[in-house]
Every structure is written in C-alpha cells, then in structure tokens.
Amino acid sequence: MPHRILEVCVDSTASALAAKAGGADRLELCAGLAIGGTTPSAALVRQVKAETGLPVRALLRPRAGDFCYDRWELAQMAELAAGLVAAGADGIVTGVLDPAGDLDLDAMQHICTAARRAARQAGRPVDLALHRAFDVCRDATLCLEAACELGLATILTSGQAADAWSGRALLARLQQQAAGRIEILAGAGVNARNIPDLVRQTHVTACHLSGKKRVPSRMVFRRAGVPMGLPGFDEFELWQTDPAAIRAARAALDGVHD
C-alpha cells in the first residue's frame, strides 16, 4: 500500500511544530488563516524550515477575496514566488483565474517560471501546486488538464463544494482523471472522523487539514472595546494546530486499507 500524504496548513512556527509532533508529512505555510490564508513572510519560511525540517510549501496569495488579480498584484506574486523559494520553501501553492473563471495560464506560467528559476539558482527542485482557486473555476475537468500542462504537482480541492465530504463524488472523478499525472489533495473539513470513508470513496492518496484549536492569549491585561480587525473577532484567542487532532488524522489515514 502506498504511503498516503498528510499535509497540514499552518500559519505559525508553534503550529508547524505541533503538526510535526502529530505526524504531518509536509506543511502548507501561510499567514492569516482566519481569512483563508495569505502569503507568509520569508522570515517565517526560514524559521519553520529550520525548526521542523519538514517539506514546506508556501502559500502565494497576496490578499483575501477572489483569485482574479490585477497587473500590480501579479508582478508582486512573481517576485514573491522567487523570494519564498530563495528563503527555503520546497513548493509554492497558488492560483490565478481569469474573469471568465478559467485558469489564467499566462499569469500562472509567469509565476511558475519565477519559482523554477529561483529553485535552479538554489540548486534544488520546487513543487508547484494549485490551491482552492480550483474550487471556484468554471470547469474542473479543463482546469485539471491546464494544471497538468503547466507541470503542477498538486491540486488542493474540496471537489468544488463547501467541504471535501460534500464534494467527494467530484473528488473521485478528479482522482480518476488525474491518473497519476498530478496529486489530488483533498482539503476543507477533513478530519480523523471522515478520512477513512473519504479515502475509500474517492481513492485520493493525500489529505489536507489544519486541525486547529482555540488557545487563550498570554495577555494578562486586556483592554476591552478596542477591536483591531474583523468584527466579532476575539483578539485574546489564538487558533493553533492541535497535535492530538493531527495524530488522530495520521492514524485514520494510515488505517485505511484498500
């Protein structure tokens, strides 16, 4: 039976270490998971690589919101892709759609070229992955073929549904269409409870989760009534990866038998 990959999405070094303790195979590193994740700093990439030694794929997403970017954002993304690889990222996870909902091949190629050039300069390979922009594209079948054409290693997807369990029928079709050319990474709402049935029904060989739990702030003095961000967001509560949740997911994934 092939080893199934457990990827954990983290936005801090503390979460990265918790993911490693739980048995993660690799990390997707981002900033701001509370808003769906944005690009992490080069300093965070370097620190997480040094502290964990795990394969790290850095998210390349300049802002929250949709995946249709203007020319200034695209220029930043190409530069950031190179910088993240230079900082030690083993992969880049990104996605750009055109206004019609198709994968923007020109923009993606420009980003991929920048990342690959930086990897060559560093003397090591780089994996390129398509994130959940795939889940809001117009045609999943065509988008998968475009990702293969670009030479991408992975598509992170919920099967174009709110969560991977709801999208399991499309995940199964994508896994069949991929035919070993590209990894289908099932993500969104994935946990130890649903991994066994999800893997059996879709035949995916890789699962993605964050396994977060609430952690109280270390602040003792807390001034109330001065919000710093999203309405209703508790600034004295952190979300961090729970090693127990990752350990349970690892056991569930390893326990699936064909």
UniProtKB/TrEMBL annotation:
It is found in: Cytoplasm. Keywords: Cytoplasm. SUPFAM superfamilies: CutC-like. InterPro entries: CutC-like (IPR005627), CutC-like_dom_sf (IPR036822). It holds the Pfam family CutC. One of its GO terms (cellular component) is cytoplasm. GO terms for molecular function: copper ion binding. It comes from the Bacteria. Belongs to the CutC family. This is PF03932 family protein CutC.
